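Your task
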Amino acid sequence: MRSFAFCYKMPIDLQPSTPVALVCAILADSSDAFADAKIGLLEYFGLPHAASETYDFDFTSYYEAEMGTGLRKQLVCFTQQIDPAELATCKRQTIELEKALGRARGGTLRRRANIDPGLLSTESLVLATTKPAGHRVCIAPQLYAEVTLLYQQGCYQPLEWTYPDYRTDAMQRFLLYMRSWLLRVRSRTSAKLRL
């Protein structure tokens, strides 16, 4: 058996993760459902820092059987940054909130809001989902994470599987605005650590 010499050192201790912004994509069937979802998210995740424009979600009919037509969507970014390892916990909390906001119809609980949490960093947007796929990584039982957008060449670039609404100019403007906020927060934090 041959031995190989490695030219690098493995870290002895794992380093803490860089905090990232928690975002939640809210898809809702009414203004009341939006308001109720935001109140619930406030209780779980604290104050929002900013929100995208609300837009018509007419990119797919996937949710219409459960939630009806005329759906609207918005991305909300929270003030308190989190450890990326908390994404699975955040997804479980949003599932609880979806159930709490749901309505029983025909013996089935139907959602009024679909809430997908994600991690926005200066490098990417990662979304949590319950749907497995080859490009998604399992982060907890029945929970998966997907790199939806990757920051390259001055913008958040879509990938082959990126949903159409995350490819829009409006979404790009919002994410770049939030990226500049993240950079300012990182700069302030670095300055405090140097003192």
Q: What stands out?
A: The chain has a mean pLDDT of 92.
